[in-house]
Design a protein that fits this description.
With about 525 residues, this protein is an alpha+beta fold. The protein contains 11 helices and 31 strands.
């Protein structure tokens, strides 16, 4: 089950009750000696059993911490105008609810757009959490809690309700800053230096399921978690087991000194409720982002204009580069900073400004940390040799703008268009479980392949092949093998034979799909 954002929508849990569990039929009595747990025992091969007492540090109660920090934690209620189409049920010829002022009798919208009975779009209510980081009303929360909000109401521990406005949003880290009018608010601070260890106690405070002012306790479970979403390109998530649920989004996680060590953002759950796996944005990340949001209302990140992917051990093995870590350039944006600097597709990036790169995520984060106009010095491998490239950073576009540039259209399957009749079918070569044909005019038409793409076309893929498992499908163009261009199927066959003789179990195939996206993938030699 994927990680779920923990914002709470009113009405999502209808009829939720509170269950009380009790032990029944317990009638055993133990002596004091039986009741007291024995000290922990560790056995070692050299010294035998070693006795030790549990380490100090577990608090008798979290009440003092909660009393200290809870006035800084707030509940956030959000009202959002939604499109009336979202209230329609599939298959029904009418809306669920009265027609709007500008709605036609047949349920179609009128001239000014879809509206509710009051002349406005219907409202959706949701809630989350947040916390003051200054005495003059700045509050940190999650982007997904307040993005698109029409009205934001903040409720303090003492019951006061205050209207808030958005100061800045950052969708890439899922952080936001809002502000209420006033002074003298109790606030808390980010701890950016003394990070708790895995196993240290933490306490989370927030507004789960709309139940404001709730405290839960647990430990730090892990660092460096990847949620496999857009935010994980910029956030190494902190995992905690202090129960957090829907509505805890944007709330703080504290250490035992009452310092904020994370901003709760997501849960991993098969049920929608807490199963003891929650994720928080670490304090050092949150502190830097919120400072930029307060100062500028947005976050500006560096950008080089290249799509990248992990350089896996399997890829390294195929290129006789075992042990090499980095990120491989899958595509370069025409006219972007990387293109102007001479970075090429299939370049393997080893470091950025002296910082070693071990994944595509690490490269994205290093680039994002610089400001527009700053220099990025990339150490790369090209053609088996190391070299350096200097790139002047641009400004990273929004996620939507990037999707518009790289998303393309269509899919990797044949579109069913009939090609023109041919006098003879092109010769097909079978290699690596794929049936390959020349990239001629007929193939370009049939599979909508751009004129500047060169290589051989995958006409069929054997279902039990490694190529099929790696996602290579009909209509994809194989453009290179082991980073060398391919113009015929014979080029690929020769490279496979050479790899066999060298004792390598895989070859690295470059490809281009019908969306215009390119990349590399290691395929086992069958």
């Amino acid at each position: 089950m994927v990680a779920k954002k923990t914002g709470f929508f009113v009405g999502a849990v209808a009829g939720a009750g509170v269950a009380a569990a009790a032990l029944a039929g317990v009638g055993l009595r133990m002596s004091p000696a039986e009741a007291a747990p024995p000290p922990a025992v560790i056995k070692t091969a050299s010294t035998g059993p070693m006795m030790f007492a549990p380490p100090p540090g577990a608090p008798m109660s979290f009440a003092d911490i909660f009393e200290k920090v809870s006035p800084a934690v707030v509940s956030i209620d959000v009202s959002t105008r939604v499109n009336a189409r979202s209230l329609r049920f599939p298959g029904l010829p009418f809306n669920f609810g009265p027609p709007g002022r500008n709605e036609q009798p047949n349920g179609e919208p009128g001239g000014e757009g879809e509206q509710g009975a009051d002349g406005l779009r219907p409202r959706q209510q949701s809630s989350g959490s947040g916390f003051f980081i200054s005495a003059d009303g700045y509050i940190v929360t999650n982007n997904h809690v307040v993005a698109g909000a029409d009205e934001i109401t903040v409720t303090l521990k003492d019951g006061r309700e205050l209207k808030a406005t958005v100061v800045g949003l950052d969708e890439n880290t899922d952080l936001a800053v809002i502000k209420v009018q006033g002074t003298g608010f109790t606030f808390v601070s980010f701890e950016t230096v003394a990070k708790p260890r895995v196993g240290d106690w933490v306490i989370a405070v927030g507004n789960p399921f709309g139940l404001g002012g709730t405290a839960t306790a647990g430990i730090v479970s892990a660092y460096g978690r990847n949620l496999n979403d857009d935010s994980s390109q910029f956030v190494d998530y902190l995992q905690i087991d202090a129960p957090i649920n829907r509505g805890n989004s944007g709330g703080p996680t504290f250490d035992l000194f009452g310092r904020v060590i994370g901003v709760n953002s997501a849960i991993f759950s098969p049920t929608g409720g807490s199963v003891g796996i929650g994720f928080a944005i670490p304090a050092d990340t949150a502190a830097g982002i919120t400072k930029q949001l307060i100062a500028n209302g947005k976050v500006v990140r560096g950008y080089i204009g290249a799509q990248i992917q992990n350089f896996t051990p399997e890829m390294a093995e195929a290129l006789d580069l075992a042990g090499t870590k980095g990120a491989v350039v899958a595509q370069v944006t025409p006219g972007g900073p990387a293109d102007k600097a001479g970075l090429l597709r299939d370049d393997i990036v080893l470091s950025v400004n002296g910082v070693a790169i071990d994944s595509s995520t690490a490269l994205t984060r290093q680039v994002a940390r610089v400001s527009a106009g700053e220099n990025l010095r990339l150490e790369i491998i090209r053609g088996g040799k190391k070299r350096f490239i200097d790139i002047r950073s641009g400004v990273r576009p929004s996620n939507q703008q990037l999707a518009d540039v790289t998303g393309g259209s269509g899919d990797d399957e044949a579109d069913g268009k009939e090609s023109k009749p041919q006098k003879a079918a092109p010769a097909r070569v079978n290699v690596l479980g794929m049936g390959l044909i020349p990239l001629d005019a007929a193939a370009r038409t049939r599979y909508s392949i751009a004129a500047d793409v060169k290589g051989v076309v995958v006409e069929s893929v054997r279902g039990d092949s490694d190529a099929a498992e790696k996602g290579l499908t009909q209509g994809i163009v194989i453009t290179s093998v082991n980073l060398k261009p391919v113009s015929t199927a014979s080029d690929l066959t020769a490279a496979v034979e050479a790899a066999k003789k060298a004792g390598r179990p895989t070859v690295l195939l470059g490809f281009a799909n019908r969306r215009g996206q390119t990349g590399v993938v290691p395929v086992k030699i069958d």
